[in-house]
Amino acid sequence: MKRIVVLLLLIAMLVVSCGGKASNDPKEVATQFVEATYKGDVEALKKLAKKSEAEGFDKAKDSFKEINKMNLKPEITVSSLKEDDEKADVELLVKLKVDGAQNAKEQKVRIHLIIEDGKWVVDTLSQE
């Protein structure tokens, strides 16, 4: 299970580091991005990430379909926010439960956002 979660976040990280609903709140965009990642919602990920990453998400569409079948249920809490006029760093605590599991796994996810066309979008992410 942990390998799948790590793989899922690595795919999203690779797509973002190589190119939902838009929001002017970096905490909301970061949270929506992680939710979309765990749901395997490629269309939402494309809207929430910088434009140059759309093709990368399309290439990983099959992997995200498999993730969607897993019915992952993340609980996401914003741990911290550092923001200025053009960039923001959001740290999230993600607790993940899979259907039928008793225990939730926890991990920290850091998301770097930038302003693109007047909106906050995901630039890069990392996990611990």
Summarize the structure in words.
The protein is an alpha+beta fold. It has a four-stranded antiparallel β-sheet with strand order 1-2-3-4, covered by helices on one side.
The spatial strand order of the largest sheet comes to 1-2-3-4
CATH topology: Nuclear Transport Factor 2, Chain: A
Task: Tell me the total number of β-strands.
Answer: 4
- Summarize the main sheet: 4 strands, antiparallel
Characterize the overall form. flat
Order of helices and strands: HHHHHEEEE
* Share of helix, binned: 40-55%
Question: Which CATH class applies here?
Answer: Alpha Beta
Q: Provide the structure class.
A: alpha+beta
What gyration radius follows from the Cα positions, in whole Å?
14 Å
C-alpha end-to-end distance: 16 Å
Mean pLDDT: 81
Which CATH-level-2 architecture?
Roll
What is the number of domains? 1
Spans of at least 5 consecutive residues with low confidence: 13-22
Strand content is 35-45%
SSE diagram, text form:
Blueprint lengths: L1 H16 L8 H14 L2 H7 L5 H6 L1 H9 L2 E12 L3 E12 L6 E12 L2 E9 L1
Antiparallel strand pairs: 1-2, 2-3, 3-4
